[in-house]
Structure prediction request, 540 residues.
Amino acid sequence: MTQNKNISVSQMMEKMQNQMNLPPHAYYFDTTLRDGEQTHGIVFNMNEKLEIARSLDNLGIDVIEAGFPVVSDGDFQACKEIVKLGLKAEIAGLARLNQQDIDCAVDADLDAIHVFIATSDLHLKNKLKMTQDQVLSKIENYVSKAKENFTNVVFSAEDATRTNLDFLIKCNELAVNSGATRINIPDTVGTITPMAYGYIIKEHYNKLPKNIRISAHCHNDFGLGVANTIAAFENGASEAQTTILGLGERAGNAAFEETAMSLYALYGLKSNIIYNKIYPTAKLVERYCGGKISIGRLTPLIGKNAFSHESGIHAHAMIQNARTYDPISPSLLGIPRSDSKSAIVAQSIKLGKHTGNHALRAKINEIGIIPTDEQFSTIRNNIKRIGDKGHEIREEDFLAIVKDVMGEIPEQEKFVILEELTVLTGSVTPTATVRLKIRNNGDFIERIASSIGNGPVDASINAIVKCFSKMSKILLLSFDIEAITGGTDALGHVSIEVEDIETNNIVSSNATHEDVVMSAVLAMIKALNKLVREKNSSQA
Prediction:
């Protein structure tokens, strides 16, 4: 297995490969448009199906299961239209082992047919009401009929992993003798572990002709869909039946993006997949799911957090070498981030309570700002304070915090300092009490004032104006408040203009805080400091 600068996995992977029956080439059978559309609540319209099919083809998928032609006129028409696209991928359709289904697949002009019948005792007794001999007869009869019309016939023994192994092998051998060119072994309800599934695959690999492609179709009911698919490849399978985003019945299928990247990065298997189209294809399918299925934060490889780092230790190491905590480069998947220091700092270093000094300084420097030690300390403390309260600090929040701190007057030059703010709201008229320290002739004096208002912000501003009135009469000219980002945890950003009535001097200021009342108060305190400083300068 070859390694490159974009991939760094355990060296044990290569050492273990001589104990496996890995294929020389991995094939991918995508069933997003068939099994994926069986996800409750998901229906793709014709244009969406055609666009998904084109994207799958551009991705390098070998076989696209376009639908189940007999199930509806929509599925039938979709199969026909996808075939007309003239894609490189083989276009297959699903059919039960009966003449009507097979004829419908033929009429849809499909390249290949995927036929199935249940084989477990549970299904035979409760669903099909058939004996094993009757199932064998049906396999022999209808696989032969399918072969009369299609060069490639895929046979699936539904509920294979709950089928008696000897009977399962007998069914699959009979299917091959009747014309099946590929054998799929479905873990229909995800009820097996990787070791046990690998054993089933290995038994088939040892008994079936080597020109028969064995594929794995694994559901994710116990969260083992991808693991079971990989176990299949370790034991002789060469084709994975997967869906984009793991769409499918109940908990879904093995996710294509996880399966394909695992087989490539961990095992070095060759395939026809163009890996940097994985993320764009996943985003396309997500969009067509209409918000009912979305890529989660913790979704492996393509989730929002997959290549994000907050911990100071992790972030510092990432800046030195991306492979320390990113086992693969996100660019391999088509995620727009390179492994350059600037790209990592800008896109992957996230801020919060765990942020370290190295990462934060790099992130501040990346936007062209060189803070003093005091400013840096304030930025860091603000970020950690906000993070400690459970707020997510987005990029817009970070920029606002930095801008806020960089615009502050140095501590030694401040004339007005907020010592305490108390606000009462609820069933009473909003009331605020403020305690300020105000510099007068070089010494600080303490002043306290209370006021009411139309709300907690108004009451707080009124209290500050009242408290400061002995120094100067001021007038609030404009007040603008906005949430920097969406959501209930968004930081509040306040911008104000204040006029000194005595001098007609007008200043503007802004502040950012997780508490909107504090945002307003801090903006007002900044404005007062500017007014006093400018007034003193003019009198000097």
Remarks:
- The mean pLDDT is 93.
- The first helix runs from residue 12 to 16.
- The two ends are 76 Å apart (CA to CA).
- The longest strand covers residues 431-440.
